[in-house]
Structure formats: structure tokens, C-alpha cells
Design a protein that fits this description.
Layout: E1 2-12, E2 20-25, E3 46-47, E4 53-54, E5 56-59, H1 60-67, H2 71-77, E6 80-84, H3 92-104, E7 108-113, H4 119-126, E8 131-135, H5 141-148, H6 153-164, E9 169-175, H7 183-193, E10 199-206, H8 212-217, H9 232-241
Parallel strand pairs: 2-6, 6-7, 7-8, 8-9, 9-10
Antiparallel strand pairs: 1-2, 1-5, 3-4
Helix pairs in contact: 1-3, 3-4
């Protein structure tokens, strides 16, 4: 089973519980204008204008062998492997095989997803998933289409399906100043999940500009260049609202 990845990052603490090894896949159906991993959007292997090649083809077993080197850290911290991207559900069979190999060897498994995928892809991956980190970009349908290029309805339906399947999930909210930092948005998210018993929390993911340089290396315009990172006070206010 082969797939395309960008890289594997060790000792991550923001991609689920404990110390985790995060596998970044290539390819995503969304085109979020604030995306800090623009190199993950296309399934094609690309080249930065610096000459660096982005993406490589590997087998699921290759990834597993790499991940299991960190198993000792997972056990002591309650961590594991997280498949991110890009979009893990964009390569469902590849993602599922990595998770299966990890889970069969006692490694906690998680994915970070936008939730935009067909039901078959979601079902394929969920069978081997201990936790889902589920991004909700927008609750206003018009804004969601404008900012991400896709409609939100399949995402909401898939979130409900994950809950019905009994898989725990954590909601992650990328909050972008002047775009979706509305109290109305946060209220709608809380209303959405209040009756979903598998929801284990809501986390705000504040906007940052760490990926802006990648757009220059890909010769693409960065549409959020005028947006500033939130201050500590803004972040405290958002968390207070939530």
C-alpha cells in the first residue's frame, strides 16, 4: 500500500494527547485561504523555487517502521501517532493501513481532518482510529465556501457519523481575526456538539503566519498577508467566549 507524504515530525505536543509522531500527507480537497501548509494541498510532488522537492511516495509499512521507533515515548506520555496533512481522508486506504499497523502494535492512533470526504473513505479510516481531531473552519455556509472552496454540509454530516460510530473526537477551531472570530460562530459550534456524547472538548487554534514564507517559495499569493496574529489578550477573549 503506497501513498504520498510530505514528512514525518517527531515529538509533537499539539496533535493530540501526549508526545506524538505526526505524519503529514499530501493532498487536500480544501483550499483554505489561511492554510499554513500550502505545500500539502496538491497531490502532485512539487518543487519550491529554492529547489527543495516537496513530497515522496512511500509504503504504509515504511511509515509504520518509522513511527514505531518512538513507541517508548508514546507509552510514557500517553501519546501515539497522528495522521495529518493535507487531508488523511484524501488517501483513505493508505491512512487506514498506517493506522491498522500502529493499532495492532499497541500504538494510539489519531487523525486530524477537515471532515470533508465521502462516507466510504471515512468508514475505512475510522475502523482503526482511537481519536479524531476535527477541524471546523466556519459555521456560515456562504463564508465556508468563500474561505475553503467547499460547502460545509458534508462536514457536519460526517461529524455526526463519527459520533454515531462511537469514536471520540475533539473539535478544533482555527480562528482567524476579521474572518471567523465571531461569537456567533463559536455559539453555533457549541450548539452543534452539545448533544454529541463523543465530543471530548473544543480547542481554539489561533491564526499564525509561520507558513507565509511557503507561499513565496511556491510562487503563490498569500491572501491573508494583511491579517495580524492575535494578541494574547485576543486569545484570552476568544477562550473566555468559548
Amino acid at each position: 500500500m503506497q501513498g504520498k507524504i510530505i514528512n514525518i515530525t517527531r515529538f509533537c505536543t499539539d496533535d493530540g494527547p501526549g508526545i506524538r509522531t505526526t505524519v503529514f500527507l499530501k493532498g487536500c480537497p480544501l483550499k483554505c485561504i489561511w492554510c499554513h501548509n500550502p505545500e500539502s494541498q496538491s497531490m502532485e510532488i512539487e518543487t519550491y523555487n529554492t529547489g527543495e522537492i516537496i513530497g515522496k511516495i512511500v509504503t504504509a509499512k515504511d511509515v509504520f517502521e518509522d513511527v514505531r521507533q518512538d513507541k517508548i515515548f508514546f507509552g510514557t506520555s500517553g501519546g501515539g501517532v497522528t495522521i495529518s496533512g493535507g487531508e488523511p481522508l484524501f488517501q483513505p486506504e493508505f491512512t487506514a493501513e498506517i493506522l491498522r499497523l500502529c493499532k495492532d502494535n499497541g500504538i494510539h492512533t489519531a487523525i486530524e481532518t477537515s471532515g470533508f470526504a465521502g462516507r466510504q473513505a471515512l468508514t475505512t479510516v475510522l475502523k482503526h482510529c482511537d481519536l479524531v481531531l476535527f477541524d471546523i473552519k466556519e459555521t456560515n455556509a456562504e463564508n465556508h465556501l468563500k474561505y475553503t472552496g467547499v460547502t460545509p454540509q458534508p462536514i457536519i454530516e460526517n461529524l455526526k457519523y463519527i459520533n454515531h460510530a462511537g469514536v471520540p473526537f475533539i473539535i478544533r477551531l482555527p480562528i482567524i481575526p476579521s474572518l471567523n472570530d465571531r461569537q456567533e460562530h463559536m455559539i453555533k459550534v457549541k450548539e452543534l456538539v452539545k448533544n454529541l456524547e463523543q465530543c471530548k472538548g473544543i480547542e481554539i487554534m489561533p491564526y499564525h503566519t509561520l507558513g507565509e514564507y511557503k507561499y513565496k517559495q511556491l510562487d503563490r499569493p498569500y491572501l491573508c498577508s494583511q491579517i495580524k496574529e492575535p494578541s494574547k489578550q485576543q486569545l484570552e477573549e476568544w477562550n473566555h467566549r468559548l
